[in-house]
Amino acid sequence: MSSLDTGSSSHETRGSPEPPKALVDALLRLLVPLVRLLLSHGVTHPFLGSLLKRVYVDVAEREFALEDRRQTISRLSLLTGIHRKDVKRLLEERSEVSAVPRSVSLGAQLVSRWLGLAEFQEGSDPRRLPRLATADGSPSFESLVESVSKDIRPRAILDEWFRLGVVQLDNEDRVCLNERAFVPEKGFDEKAHNLGRSLRDHMAAAGRNLVGREAPLLERIVYYDDLSVASVEELSELSRSLGADALETVNRHALALQDRDASGDDTSRRMSFGVYFYEEADGGSAEDDSEETGDADA
Fold first, then answer.
1. Do 88 and 147 lie in a common domain?
2. Which residues of the chain fall below pLDDT 50?
3. Within the chain, what is the greatest distance between any pair of CA atoms?
4. pTM here?
5. Residue 63 belongs to what domain range?
6. What pLDDT score does 48 carry?
7. Final residue of a structural domain among 187, 217, 247
């Protein structure tokens, strides 16, 4: 295969095996939308390079240690191709990723309960909840918030959700969920957090399946091209509806299992399940290639 200009010093590349061409091709394809996003927000190549060094060292130290052997700076340098002095500096300067925005962690819990508990449902749709607690004790937005946390005022949550575009009030002062999920329409920090969380898990699932050392995880996609605008819009609506149904079904079951597991000893596992839809003009991006489409990878 043709070599790539990595910008690395001879120290960083000497003796390193050349990665499989298929993996390099996949990286080039998936990096295009990432770089597009980074450029649109002024993230330069040097800045990304510094982040990658930090992540390389962190992952190598945590996940590529030899059994019963202390992880050394020299081995981390060999694994990552990063100079020893940079490895040492990065280990000393290690910092944690910022905490999940409070509006995201609490918001996701609230919407999960809104969509997952029968008392907050009306048929197959989320119930329009009276903003204030009711005299007869029937479900309200206040009771929803208090079912998760009594340390924060429901009005504060409501104001924040108005800002993010998550809910709206109808003419009867009932709180209506705009989407059947916690999907902020506004709020850059919240949307950026969701980006990192969802793509991290998708990439982790795809990477695990490619390595092939463990049982494969669910990771499927339907590809089609040669479609009209009207057909894509129809498929978008179908995907949105079916996707919401699948997510809500898994959410209800997960919520029930989480309540059941609360009394158990081992609750150390987490999971995620996601759905997405994407469309663009044929040949509309640099990652397009000649792969066959019009099939379901299922």
1. no
2. 1-3, 5-14, 286, 289-292, 298
3. 74
4. 0.66
5. 10-92
6. 92
7. 217
